[in-house]
Amino acid sequence: MSVTTNAAGIQDEGLQVFDPSTGQFTAIDLTTKGDLLAYNGSSYVRVSVGADGKVLEADSAETEGLKWATKSGAADISDLANISSLYDTFSGDVTDQTTQAALGNLGWSYQGDLSIVSFAEAGHENVFKLESLSFTAQNVLFLKPETQFLGSAKISQSWLIKIPTLSDGTNSFEVDFGFSDIKTRTGAAPTDGVYWRYTHSENSGDWTVRATKSSTTTTANTSNTVDTGWHVFKIEINSAVSSASFFYDGTEVANSPITTNLPLSTTGIHPYIRFEKTAGATTAELLIDTFYQVYDRT
Fold this sequence. Notes:
- This protein is 0% helix and 47% strand.
- It has no helices and 22 strands.
- The radius of gyration is 28 Å and the shape is elongated.
- It starts with 14 loop residues before the first strand and ends with a strand.
- Strand 5 and strand 6 form a beta hairpin.
- By secondary structure, it is an all-beta fold.
C-alpha cells in the first residue's frame, strides 16, 4: 500500500497515529489480518501477526517490547484428551491397618508386616504413617492397575514424604519408591523400575536414584543428604523412555538424568513404596502426605 501526504501534512493512507515526538500524525501501514500496533519507546510500529497457535508475550529484549511465543502453562480444554492424572492426599481414617486393603483416595494395596495408621502434624493434617514392624519380610504399598506402561506418554510422579528417624547401624531399614513391578512380599529388588532409594549404608546416607531393566540396574548417587524433614521427590520420564530425571524439592539432583536400563513400554509397572526393616528392635516409620502423577500425551 502506498502512503502519500496531503496538503495538511497528514498521510492519507494507513492508520493515523499522532506522534508526540514530531507533533504530527503518522500513518502506520497495517498490511495483514491480525497485525498489531505497538509503541517501542520512541515511536509507534507495526507488529506482524504471529503464526497460528502462538500467543503474545511481553519481552523487554524485543525492539517492540512484544513477541509471539509458544503457549505454556496450564492445559486448555483441547488438551484434556491428552493429559490425565492421579492424585492422593492419603486422607481418611485408618487405625492400625495390618491386612491387605484398598487405602487412600486411590485405593492402594499392600503386602507385608506393615501397620498403616492415620497421622497428623502441623501443616500436614492428612498423612499415612507406615510402620515396618518386622525385618522378616518385605513391605510394599502399590497402586493398581499393575500394568501401567512407560512409553505411552511423558510421565511425572511426585511424592511428599518424611522419614522421622533415620536408619543407622542399630536400627536399620530400606526405603525405595517410584515405579516398579513389585507387588508381593518377595524381599527382592525390582525386576523393572525407576525409583528413589535410601538406606544409611549406601552413598554415605545420601539418596540414590535408580533405573532397572530385566534386573540390570543403573545407580546414580545424589548429593542430597537424607534428613528428618518433609521433602518433595519427583521423577520425570520422557515418552521415548530414553531419559529419567529426578528432582528434590524442585531442583534436579546430581547425576540426573539416567539414560540407561530404563524399562521399555512392554513392561507393566505401577507406583509403589517399598519399606523394609532390616535390623533392630525399634519400629521404623515413614510418613506420606501426597502422591501426584501426570500422563502427558501432547
